[in-house]
What we know:
Number of helices of chain B: 22
Radius of gyration of chain B: 21 Å
Helix content of chain A: 25-40%
Helix content of chain B: over 70%
CATH class of chain A: Alpha Beta
Distance between the termini of chain A: 56 Å
Number of domains of chain A: 1
Largest sheet of chain B: none
Strand order of the largest sheet of chain A: 1-2-5-3-10-13-11-12
Number of helices of chain A: 9
Order of helices and strands of chain A: HEEEHEEEEEEHEEHEHEHHHEH
Structural class of chain B: mainly alpha
CATH architecture of chain A: 3-Layer(aba) Sandwich
CATH topology of chain A: Aminopeptidase
Largest sheet of chain A: 8 strands, mixed
Mean pLDDT of chain B: 87
Low-confidence stretches of chain B: none
Oligomer: heterodimer
Strand content of chain B: under 5%
Number of strands of chain B: 0
Largest interface: A-B, 48 and 61 residues
Radius of gyration of chain A: 21 Å
Number of strands of chain A: 14
Low-confidence stretches of chain A: none
Structural class of chain A: alpha/beta
Number of domains of chain B: 1
Amino acid sequence: MRMMQGTKKTAFILLALSMLVVVAVTPDFRRMHVEEPIRKGPGVTTVKQLSDYFAKLKGTNGDTPVYVLDSGKPGGTALVLGGTHPNEPSSFLSALLLIENAKPAKGRLIVIPRANNSGFSHTDYTEGAPQHFMLKAASGERWFRFGSRATNPTDQWPDPDIYVHAASGQKLSGSETRNLNRAYPGRPDGTLTEQVAYGIVQLIRQEKVAMTIDLHEASPEYPVINAIVAHERAMDYAAEVTIGLQMDGIKIGLEPSPKSLRGLSHRELGDATDTLAILMETANPAQGRLRGATNAALVVTGKDVMYERAAKLNRLFVPYDEKGQPIDLRVARHVTAINEFLNVLSVKNPAQAVVLNRVPSYNDMVKKGIGSYL
Amino acid sequence: MLLLMLAAFLGLVAGLKWPVGLALAATSVVVAAADGQGFPLRHLVEGMFGYLDVSLVLITAMIFMKIIERNGLLDVLACDLMLRFGRSPATMLTAMTLIIMFPGMITGSCTASVLSTGVLLTPVLLKMDMPRAKAGAIVAMASVYGMIAPPVNIVVMIIGGGIDMPYIGFDLPLLLMTLPLAILTTLYLGYGFARKADMESVVSEFTCHERAPGGFLLYLPLLVVLVLMIGPKALPGIFPDPRLPLTFVIGSALAMLSGRKFNLLETARAGVAEILPVVGILMGVGMLIQIMTLTGIRGSIAVSSLSLPQYLLLASIAVTLPLFGGISVFGAASVLGVPFILTMLGQNLIITASGMSLIAAMGSFMPPVALTAVIAAQVVEEPDYLKIVKPLVVPSLVAIGIGVLMIKYATQIARLVL
């Protein structure tokens, strides 16, 4: 190509072209700021905001709805965190399914479906991710955002070269500074991500939350998958749940929360508050590094030829065949495990009992699809 | 699809002589269209954001370098270094290696090294009658070793992040891995020239009597930049972190207060013009990685790498990490480094990840992107970056070999050094 000499004219043309690109592409990025509808189910008694617990979040993209499902009867309080990582959709959808279906018979259930609200407003660059995916629901077709693992850089930028976890001094790669699940217990004067973490800690303290369950997904090649990770005070509960699920034919692993890995919910929430801190993982091929074409179908069906190849090479930590890891299965695992945790809590500590009705069964969710309940 | 991608890129670069950045962007468009994605403008724009921060660092750093070149600080620094270390070739080259590595060690970015201390010391290397290509090779290799030397090795952090391994306990192994190799590589590339050069006359030829005015104040911008780079790492949470772009802007502002007078706008424009092709490459790389991920090419490369038999795993690491590193070293760490280390969970992971970072870092010289070599070529004003890559082939192969040995004998090495 013949080198073109830069002139004022070429500069003007290039600037005009850049402006055109900005105008053309802006609606795509702005669309990610439109929230998918969440319907208040029969159990929802109040909808608060996280800023009700930490006022500094008010008016920021870190503020997020907090759904309270109160039975009005004595018992304890449990908290479910969905959307800590908005690129792990079974986390958000499990929280959504509880909000739209569950009706407590004892105690209270608090659900934050978009724990990192900012992370829902963008996708991770260079990941080729879809912005939205659709589900056929009983009420018609519903759309959801496929977000990012981290806070939107337009809310928190630039990243440092290395992220130093404030409470421990632990060093991690700079981009982890926008990862909510590396920010606990948070800081009132920290970054937006640390403030969100701080707000969640304040909620747990003020509402005297007996048990907190943080929902996640991981790549099929990641060792801690289809698993429960429990703080040492929650280990007895987690062990009973694991056995219960295994007996029901749901294979799940149990890992102790490592004391040396700081900033994660299962470590810091258990250390900083009285809550029993638990984290759960399902297998999400759409976030894995070995995935093939990245699109909305992969998010929903969890089917991927590259992961089939990787499974045949024994490179995965979950069973993986042509059926994939569909979103119905992943949500069913989370919701069933949450219910099991609440059952164990109610048995082991009746004063803190939280009993849910109208939660679909594992088999129904897998067979009929979660859309039947949305 | 992979073949189409390679054919399109090579055809545009080698056949039509398009600039690399533009060829990468056009290749992204071709691959996306062939995959039935149409013209995915959102993905092309989003991919570029992957390199926005690095581009800001490059642009501000280059403006800073141009300014301290024009105000006379670069000359004074080279001159003072020659007077201090110039009598012994080995001492001189060792000191220069450490100085070039330093910004990379602190920031985890080899670009920071090339564009700061690399620029500062290039005149000294050229005074030894070293060809521009050899001088560029020394700057490029020392900068890459700086990138993976402690305290900040982002490649290891990315690999560790994928398996929840905190960045603890890496300082000693990384130091032992990088320092000897960096110094030996510089001596291998430059000692012949330094030994033959009459160091006394090289030193005396420096026109140190024509120092730019300002005395100690002349050094102030460089000192402030170093303090702003080191402070946040040395005293995290206490020392405010202005980040690199603002650091270089502050340095540039201070450099206008001392030394020779110069035209600020023209100088800044010259700096941007020099670095623009590199920024263009980064934008193109961002687009291509995004499209490779969207279409499944990235996953296909990763799974194919893992498909090799176990006994070929080390060979696969040695080949694919630098190959992918040719597009992006950090990308190679994420896409391949994490799956690879997941297959090695039974051995010492600190040594394993360190060895992988050494191997991946050599991708910095892998054509056709060869980003570090391209930037170093700009710095030493060598029009053909391949002339910088050529002398680095042997040192890179040695480094890859050592990286492989570190992975193979990770547990035994850990017993010795940890």
